[in-house]
Amino acid sequence: MSRPLVITDCDEVLLHMVRHFRDWLDEAHDVDFSLEGNVFVQAMRRRGSDDAMSEEEVWDLLGGFFDTEMGRQTPIAGSIDAIAELQREADVVVLTNLVDKRNEARTRQLRDLGITVPVYTNQGPKGGALSRIIAEFGPSRAVFIDDIAQHHASAAENVPHIHRLHFCGEPAIAPHITCAYVAGHADARIDNWSEALPWLLETLHGEP
């Protein structure tokens, strides 16, 4: 009989990212990054300028961070133990929006922190990738965890039977992001692992 499946995002779910990205921008690029409000786009200013940076500049800097600075990233409180507990009950994979050439680095980064899981890289909305992963595993039931509301909307459209948890473990941005639960695209919104783990275990073993 197939096992349940947990498909989880990485940044702001398993690992802190934006706080370390902010520090790197400050130290290496003289860029101020406000964690409040819109993340990335329109949140970054070159020091001494009031003009927002272009989207191309933002994505170039983000790519540079993942090329050289992933070692800065620290775990969200409770994430490593929670994944270990979930792996006793279900298959667990990571679905992360990085370009494919960074798959190996992300896999190694997580393994070095104590999370050994298959990693799937993706660009854009995640519904299509979720469909493919579910087809590959054929789980008895599945749960998707992500910090971005757009991906929950995509999941709801492409794989409506998947259970969806909106989780953002970065307190500086959690109050400001669009909530997928409020929008009707997630089954719950929980931003800490002490509460998320019991919900996930109950959902994995609940009635279809």
Mean pLDDT figure: 94
Largest sheet: 6 strands, parallel
Q: Can you count the beta strands?
A: 8
Shape-level CATH architecture of the largest domain = 3-Layer(aba) Sandwich
Number of domains: 2
Radius of gyration: 17 Å
> What is the class of the largest domain in the CATH system?
Alpha Beta
Low-confidence stretches: none
Count, helices: 8
Tell me the CATH topology of the largest domain. Answer: Rossmann fold
Cα(first) to Cα(last) distance is 15 Å
Order of helices and strands: EHEEHHEHEHEHEHEH
- Choose one word for the global shape: globular
| SSE class | alpha/beta
How much helix is in the residues?
A: 40-55%
**CATH H-level superfamily title of the largest domain:** HAD superfamily/HAD-like
Spatial ordering of strands, largest sheet: 5-4-1-6-7-8
Fraction of residues in β-strands: 5-15%
Question: Could you describe the 3D structure shown?
Answer:
The protein is of the alpha/beta class and 208 residues long. It folds into 2 domains: 5-16 and 74-205, HAD superfamily/HAD-like (Rossmann fold, 3-Layer(aba) Sandwich); 18-72, no CATH class. The protein is 41% helix and 14% strand. The protein contains 8 helices and 8 strands, in the order βαββααβαβαβαβαβα. It has helices at 18-29, 55-68, 79-89, 103-112, 127-137, 149-158, 180-183, 193-205; strands spanning 5-8, 31-33, 44-46, 91-96, 119-121, 142-146, 163-166, 188-189. Strand 6, helix 6 and strand 7 (163-166) form a beta-alpha-beta unit. Helix 3 runs parallel beside helix 8 and helix 5 crosses helix 6. The longest helix has 14 residues, at 55-68. The protein is globular. It starts with a strand and ends with a helix.
